[in-house]
């Protein structure tokens, strides 16, 4: 699955996580894209260069179960990357955040019932 707007995200959990982040004051989380690979892991890109706290918020929002921000320690090239590209909307920089390894978002509802 590849989506460039929140409305295109078919998975209910991923849609809701992206939607809630989009409601943050000042909307620092402007979705660029969400990609789900064939194993159900995701890469979520947001326009701009997110700071460490914002990256933690995204990781928390897309994580399984309750995760405290203080327990999230994002590692560059493992949990997130900064990238440059040319976009029609004038944005040149974006942050890509990777969901935890091994979490299959295709079966999220089933995983959520087991917690």
Topology:
Layout: E1 2-3, H1 12-22, E2 31-36, E3 42-47, H2 52-62, E4 80-84, E5 93-98, H3 108-114
Antiparallel strand pairs: 1-2, 2-3, 3-5, 4-5
Number of domains: 1
Query: How much strand?
Result: 15-25%
Provide the structure class.
alpha+beta
Element-by-element helix/strand order: EHEEHEEH
Number of H- or I-type helical stretches: 3
Indicate the low-confidence ranges by residue numbers.
none
The 3D shape can be described as: globular
Helix content: 25-40%
Number of strands: 5
Radius of gyration: 14 Å
Distance between the termini: 25 Å
Give the biggest sheet.
5 strands, antiparallel
Strand order of the largest sheet: 1-2-3-5-4
The averaged pLDDT comes out at: 87
Summarize the structure in words:
With 115 residues, the chain is of the alpha+beta class. The protein has one domain. The chain has 3 helices and 5 strands. A 5-stranded antiparallel beta sheet has the order 1-2-3-5-4, with helices on one face. Strand 2 and strand 3 form a beta hairpin.
Which terms would index this structure?
5-stranded antiparallel beta sheet, 3 helices, alpha+beta, 115 residues
Short description:
By secondary structure, this protein is α+β, with helices and mostly antiparallel strands. It has helices spanning 12-22, 52-62, 108-114; strands at residues 2-3, 31-36, 42-47, 80-84, 93-98. A five-stranded antiparallel β-sheet has the order 1-2-3-5-4, with helices on one face.
